[in-house]
């Protein structure tokens, strides 16, 4: 640098566009990173398609809505319609798996239950387990990750080892054996409610190290940012720095990771139900339906296709939305 | 901008440095970062980032702290701010020893002691509005403002040359220079007495650097500030400093009044730094020898013994490798740590130097100095 010179107007030129495009004399409202991300996300048609499907799934699964849809377009999920089933082969009578106005997705072989309603109620189970388990992982992972990354030292070492232990755990085997020994009643829950609780716990509790590692890494880099030093030099305490300076910068990765973890958990729940350690029949679950369908796909191929498609579309929608969200929140990570 | 060989800079005589009270005193301050390795995380070595520096800053003056990157300037600044705990030494601020003061006792003191950070892209929280950022010091220190925090923040924004309308905007909507101004506004909120400015302009476009330096100077006059300005080359602090301290590998090698240092640099390292300062006028560039330092800065993990500069110094003798030159006052107010200083007849270790058999091996011409 040479001797200071008069203001050259270089800085005025460097004014942000928003200032130049200024909305007149009124106090200018800045656009937060969140608002900018939302604008970017809105332009991403694929992600918005995913978001639409996710939204539909959520609305479909709301209390009352599932029952209403089931009543309006199908028939109760556990009602048998054996008159619609071919008694010799066990397959549904009629073409395309017995699709009709009363049974838009056709009917199940053997018992003739309405597939539309079973998919609908299965969606509720999948979504509930997927979301709740993700919530468990995210809460534990975020807390552990922040603590490890922010305080470092032996705290970090202990948490890192703990993560290694959890990640080395044979989760599927553990789930199979644990679900097998669940009592009928526990903690005020019973039957499939209790099973769902246990599934949420297992899936959520053992998956936290994945998000924990991400949050730890992000916290490590955030901790080195000068705004943390700035806050400290103004007399901020650790709690202020953690909650007001660091945590708001973690919202984006937490959101992205959550939307990407939900479909993983849905798949995991489907796999456990497929293996017979998930939701107990007669309550519908997508994995359980697939499991039953594997023996009947010759007489009723649609029985494989319908729940398979449901899982596929759900997982794909969450992933497309999550990827779009990540791109919108952090365009550099593309 | 003219470059003449004997004129003094335009501000050389403008400011009268008050010879008053010492605001900040740093005595033999050091920071050794431990290096751990192995399963048991045992300490195997230490990065001697700062290794015993001493200086003091008087009320109203500006001390420039200069040295190549990695020589421990930021570490020194962060220790003064007590963002890092010193390994040894003593920091006295306003007569109070703050070296080991607890963070809770330090909290009220922090109003008087603030820092401007190097990277305006990292020093502002991207999730907070300008209003929240600049208003944070009021909230954190629970300071009542006459007309509310918002009004106070808007006044601060105006003070640093921003529009009060920027209150609701976010950092990413601003240029680097504007961001640095936001950071400065935050620093000023508590009306500090001492500001440590860690390379306040090195991340900015050259065209904007001068504006920010000018702003810092104007604020100093208006608000009676005392600065420690850190820079990695001598050109940035030349204009703003009253005194300059030159650091090399965790040690101060030369301290002098600004004009003295730029006109009669005694330490070979200072001479080398000065010769690296670009001369804008091509006509003047001729006949000016550039001292090119050989090699890289040695690692602070294992700094060279005795004079740490001897691995790169063209005047180095045997004694430089065995005996550390003390930081001695060779002329009034001009301290140098060198066995064979330039621009003077005495040396830091006069007696030793005289007994040395051979005179300095080379007689490199002193680089001509750039003057505004
Ligand atoms: N937290 C730390 N842990 C280990 N080494 C550090 C740490 N901070 C700085 N250092 C080392 O200390 C030396 C001085 O760093 P710094 O004070 O940032 O230099 P400067 O600001 O002069 O460029 C460098 O070698 C740097 O790598
Ligand atoms: S003491 Fe010797 S090596 Fe060190 S700067 Fe002076 S002449 Fe060079
Ligand atoms: Mg630095």
What proportion of the residues of chain B form beta strands (DSSP E)? 15-25%
Low-confidence segments of chain B, ≥5 residues, pLDDT <50? 1-14, 351-372
How many beta-strand segments of chain A?
A: 2
Main beta-sheet annotation of chain B: 8 strands, mixed
Helix/strand structural class of chain B: alpha/beta
Any idea what the radius of gyration of chain A is?
26 Å
Outline of chain A: elongated
Q: Please tell me the overall pLDDT of chain B.
A: 84
Q: Please, what is the CATH homologous superfamily of chain A?
A: MetI-like
CATH architecture of chain A: Orthogonal Bundle
Which two chains touch over the largest interface? A-B, 38 and 64 residues
How would you sum up the major sheet of chain A? 2 strands, antiparallel
Order of helices and strands of chain B: EEEHEEHEHHHEHEHEEHHHHEEH
What is the H/E order of chain A? HHHHHHHHEEHHHHHH
CATH topology of chain A: MetI-like fold
């Amino acid at each position: 640098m040479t001797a200071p010179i008069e203001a050259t107007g270089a800085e005025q030129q460097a004014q942000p566009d928003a200032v130049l495009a200024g909305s007149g004399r009124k106090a200018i409202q800045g656009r937060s990173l969140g608002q900018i991300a939302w604008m970017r996300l809105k332009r991403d048609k694929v992600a918005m398609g995913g978001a639409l499907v996710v939204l539909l799934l959520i609305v479909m699964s709301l209390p009352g809505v599932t029952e209403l849809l089931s009543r309006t377009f199908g028939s109760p999920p556990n009602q048998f319609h054996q008159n619609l089933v071919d008694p010799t082969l066990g397959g549904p009578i009629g073409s395309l798996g017995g699709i009709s106005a009363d049974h838009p997705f056709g009917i199940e072989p053997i018992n003739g239950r309405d597939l539309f309603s079973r998919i609908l109620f299965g969606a509720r189970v999948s979504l509930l387990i997927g979301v709740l388990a993700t919530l468990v992982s995210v809460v534990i992972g975020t807390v552990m990750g922040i603590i490890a990354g922010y305080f470092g030292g032996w705290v970090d070492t202990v948490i890192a080892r703990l993560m290694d232990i959890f990640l080395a755990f044979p989760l599927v085997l553990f789930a199979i054996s644990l679900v097998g020994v669940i009592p009928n009643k526990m903690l005020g829950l019973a039957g499939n409610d209790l099973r769902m609780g246990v599934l949420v716990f297992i899936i959520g509790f053992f998956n936290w190290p994945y998000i924990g590692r991400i949050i730890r890494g992000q916290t490590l880099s955030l901790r080195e940012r000068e705004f943390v030093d700035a806050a400290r030099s103004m007399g901020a305490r650790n709690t202020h720095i953690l909650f007001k300076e660091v945590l708001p910068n973690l919202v984006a990765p937490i959101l992205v990771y959550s939307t990407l973890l939900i479909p993983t958990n849905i798949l995991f729940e489907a796999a456990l139900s497929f293996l017979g350690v998930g939701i107990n029949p007669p309550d519908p679950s997508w994995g359980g339906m697939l499991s039953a369908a594997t023996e009947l796909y010759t007489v009723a191929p649609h029985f494989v296709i319908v729940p398979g498609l449901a899982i596929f579309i759900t997982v794909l929608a969450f992933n497309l939305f999550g990827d779009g969200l990540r791109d919108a929140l952090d365009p550099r990570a593309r | 901008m003219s470059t003449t060989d004997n004129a003094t800079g335009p501000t050389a005589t403008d400011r009268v440095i008050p010879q008053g009270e010492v605001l900040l005193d740093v005595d033999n301050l050091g920071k050794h970062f431990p290096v751990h390795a192995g399963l048991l995380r045992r300490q195997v070595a230490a990065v001697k980032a700062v290794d015993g520096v001493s200086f003091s800053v008087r009320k109203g003056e500006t001390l420039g702290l200069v040295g190549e990157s990695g020589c421990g300037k930021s570490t020194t600044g962060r220790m003064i701010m007590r963002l890092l705990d010193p390994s040894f030494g003593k920091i006295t601020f306003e007569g109070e020893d703050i070296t080991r003061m607890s963070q809770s006792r330090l909290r009220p003191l922090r109003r008087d002691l603030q820092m401007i950070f190097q990277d305006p892209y990292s020093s502002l929280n991207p999730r907070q509005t300008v209003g929240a950022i600049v208003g944070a010091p009021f909230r954190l220190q629970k300071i009542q403002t006459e007309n509310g925090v918002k009004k106070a923040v808007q006044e601060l924004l105006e003070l640093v040359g921003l529009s009060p309308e920027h209150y609701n905007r976010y950092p990413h909507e601003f240029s680097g220079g504007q961001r640095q101004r936001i950071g400065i506004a935050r620093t000023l909120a508590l009306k500090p007495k001492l500001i440590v400015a860690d390379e306040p302009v090195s991340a900015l476009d050259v065209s904007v650097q001068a504006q920010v330096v000018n702003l810092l100077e104007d604020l100093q006059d208006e608000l009676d500030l005392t600065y420690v300005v850190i820079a990695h080359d001598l050109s940035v602090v030349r204009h703003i400093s009253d005194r300059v301290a030159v650091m090399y590998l965790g040690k101060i090698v030369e301290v002098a009044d600004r004009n003295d240092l730029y006109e009669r640099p005694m330490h070979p390292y200072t001479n080398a730094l000065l010769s690296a300062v670009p001369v804008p006028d091509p006509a003047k560039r001729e006949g000016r020898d550039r001292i090119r330092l050989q090699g890289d800065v040695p690692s602070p993990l294992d700094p060279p013994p005795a004079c740490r500069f001897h691995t790169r110094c063209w005047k180095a003798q045997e004694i430089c490798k065995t005996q550390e030159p003390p930081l001695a006052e060779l002329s009034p107010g001009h301290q140098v740590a060198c066995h064979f200083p330039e621009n003077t007849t005495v040396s830091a270790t006069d007696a030793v130097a005289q007994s040395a058999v051979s005179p300095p091996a080379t007689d490199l011409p002193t680089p001509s100095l750039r003057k505004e």
